């Protein structure tokens, strides 16, 4: 057995015989672009949901504050 064949067998035992060639740039870039668009869309949805809930909470708090009577306590001024 030649040294090259022995090295090839040892390498195949460790790494395996299958070889995945590098992907095309177009496929890689398109995956990154889709991931970026989905990430931005997810952020937009989260911001939209927070905005809707915060506006609703603000209007409900304003309505609740308007329903409560405002009590004013008038304190006479101290005489010097």
Structural class: mainly alpha
The SSE string, one letter per element, is: HH
> How would the global form be characterised?
rod-shaped
Would you count the extended β strands for me?
Answer: 0
Sheet with the most strands? Answer: none
**Amino- and carboxy-terminal Cα gap:** 115 Å
Rg, rounded, reads 35 Å
Low-pLDDT segments, ≥5 res: none
**Tally the helices: what do you get?**
2
Give the fraction of residues assigned to helices.
over 70%
- Mean pLDDT across residues: 86
Estimate what percentage of residues fall within beta strands: under 5%
Can you lay out the helices and strands and say which pair or pack?
Blueprint: H1 3-15, H2 25-67
Record keyword descriptors for this entry.
0% strand; mainly alpha; 80 residues; transmembrane helix; transmembrane; rod-shaped; membrane
């Amino acid at each position: 057995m030649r040294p090259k064949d022995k090295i090839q067998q040892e390498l195949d035992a460790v790494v395996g015989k299958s070889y995945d060639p590098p992907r095309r740039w177009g496929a890689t870039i398109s995956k990154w672009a889709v991931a970026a668009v989905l990430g931005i869309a997810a952020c937009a949805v989260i911001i939209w949901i927070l905005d809707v809930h915060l506006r609703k909470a603000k209007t409900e708090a304003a309505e609740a504050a308007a329903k409560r009577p405002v009590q004013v306590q008038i304190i006479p001024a101290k005489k010097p």
